[in-house]
Amino acid sequence: MRTSDGPGRRHAGAPFPAWINKVLARLRTATRQELREAGAAGGGGPQQEAGGLPAVIGLVTIDACPVRALSLALQEAGFRVRRLGEDVDHLPAEELADVSVFLVCGSVCPEVYQALRRRSSARILALVPGGEGEVLEALSAGADDSQKLGISEQEIAARIYALLRRAGRPRSAGQV
To answer: CA 68, CA 81: separation in Å to the nearest integer?
Structure first.
């Protein structure tokens, strides 16, 4: 049963799936070096791609966005982060080829979502500064998931895990 204050918001005490609780507990206690070593060693989790390499998150920034904080949080969660800017139409194909999820941060720009869809089959998570109207606009413009900026880094990581899971990325044994 999901207890919620609205899209993407949970009441304190609302249960997460067990694997998310394990990831969140590990993030709270692990040092950055331990997380880097686990990612390099192919230490399990849905963020792993075939071959044990961490999934690549393409960070697309449209306007004011906490890029540094997001990059660091995603790296600590075991992802590789590639900052792409906003002009995705002119990026070399090899920059986009291994991206598993695009994290588009900033105001809704349908041209960016359309360019990503044309050039890649990766999932798109949009973080928008506005309210429900902008979240809905991002979804109708091509995002697979959309949330208002201000959600926690742990929730962003959990949403990326969910997108990877839905895209059929490999999981470790015991992952739901």
So the answer is: 11
